[in-house]
Amino acid sequence: MKRFEETIRQAIKEGSSDLHIIPGHRAAYRKHGLISFHGQQPWGAREIDALVRKLLSPQHFQTLQERFSVDFAISIFRARLRVNVFSNNRGLSLAIRILPGNPPTIDDLNLHPCLHEISSLESGLVLFCGATGVGKTSTIAAVIDEINANRLGHIITLENPIEYRFQSKKCVIQQRELGMDMPSFDRGLIDILREDPDVIVVGELRDPETMRLTLNVAESGHLVIGTLHASSVEEAMYRLLNSFPPDSQDAIRIQLASVISWLIVQDLVPLKGINFRVPLLSILRGTTPVKNVIRDNKLHQIEGFLQTGRGSGMFSADRYMEEFLLTRQKFASPIDVFRPSEESDQEPMYHSVLLRKDAYTDSQTDMDASDVADRLRVMLRPSVTPHMGHDVEGIENLLNIKEEASIEELIKEFEKR
User: Fold this and answer.
1) Domains in the chain: how many in total?
2) Over the stretch 121-131, which tens digit does the pLDDT of each residue have?
């Protein structure tokens, strides 16, 4: 564990965004998109086994055994770490994303100011799309924290795992983690309408049922923010619609048209003159013409809206680069923005012991002996009459009950009588 902590410390010092620990390799750091090796000694497979055993909770350990991979997040050196442990032909490897202790702001992330408008939405569906590792999670965190700071409401997030931890400000924020607080995204979405939410965050729309439930929740009048893996706006539309059987796609398309508010595709690109990558966005807004195109299944026209929708706040990637990134005078450095900081939410994470499968049995066995004595007194009173100088109130002496006795001893004593 000491070597792991030192490796994390060094990665933070280097300003790395990711860290890889692989059997037979030195630690690999990713900085500005490039991988480099650090340290002198390769990590051993059994050394990593021992590390993983220390890092995993019992629930995560069970997931690893069942799935051969597991996602979780931990806090160390005031930084938040998102960790994926997975099995490969060398043993177990760790892929670690280094996050700051507090959510960044939209301005910190060098995003277009129009994204501030999302925080004022009362309902609708906002989709953030892009490949893994382009910053979708950080962008959503910035939007959520802006909602949290500026309006009253109840925010519930469904995540895998919980990456940024939020402290309730004007909003009440509750975060649920897959495998720890809910068995699936589907179950979380089914439950969520009974939990009085105003804003709902769905970590990933990966399968048709999650997509269907997300559309249903958005259609019920809530603001829903989700992520989808797609490299363009048109691809995102087709991926969502083609996840359903052909006979359902017309209904899904009509549903999508009625709820879509924003669809944002994000990438990270290098800019000449600066030493880091910045977000490159394509932005589609849910205007009436856009909704009509989706409803009428004319998705090939979407690109035209991105090119000509300047007045409606839409951008193609090329226009975003030309009109925003190349004209911006100053950019916030990721090294400063993602510098480890003390987490704003200092409350320790806790998972109720009542969620364990054996919790009910344990609660019966662990019952306080004095509580059992009280129950036995109540059970005996109707059938016991005073005799031999004892009254009903003294029945515990007759039964010779000791407060420190175990439940098994009390039951045996009761059976003797």
Assistant:
1) 3
2) 999 999 999 99
